[in-house]
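Thread title: Can someone regenerate the structure for this chain?

I was given the following input by a collaborator and told the matching structure tokens would be attached. They weren't. Posting the sequence so someone can regenerate them.
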Amino acid sequence: MTIIFTFVLGFCISFLAALLPGLINMTAAKISLQEGKTGALSFAFGAVSVVLVQTLLAVLFARFISSHLEIVAIIQEIAIFIFFGLSVYFFWIAKRPKKIKTDIKVKGKSNRFFFGMLIASINLLPIPFYVFTSISLAASGYFTFDKIPIAAFVSGVVSGSFLIFYIYVVAFKRIEKKTEFLFHNINIIIGSVTALIAIFTLFKFIFS
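Best answer:
Regenerated them for you:
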């Protein structure tokens, strides 16, 4: 598996995962509107520094788990149900994203880098997400737990996350009213991705 492919894999996964408006995205956009791009980018750098640590910890934990075959089999089975469950959720249960709110209050002007780290630290979901994702990708033959692929994957995740934050920082006002199609169909997009991951993992699990 090439380094570039592994990087692109991490980039695409994180880009899609961070695409929806969330606490980090919207806080970065609000800081940009209130204080300018410099403070918002400092916030974004702080946030992605935490994303880097979280992703690295998740992949290293996944590598530890992968050395125990009995645990890997259980994790694979759990991952299949989780990804299929997510697909069901996004296709049939999830409501369409509501109109983006821009009235988030951002008080104070303390160091925005550390503020970004704080906000990103509140969100612990990336750790289990990238544990399951990296194990599923490895089981499907798209990823290995060697040092260079890990570095490439983590770099891709960080780059994809930062690009989303950057887009919210510099272009939020311009894209706010021009993304109706994306935000009304984002559940279908994400559901399709999780379904594909689940199917690949299932086939790999059955025929391995």
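The mean pLDDT is 79.
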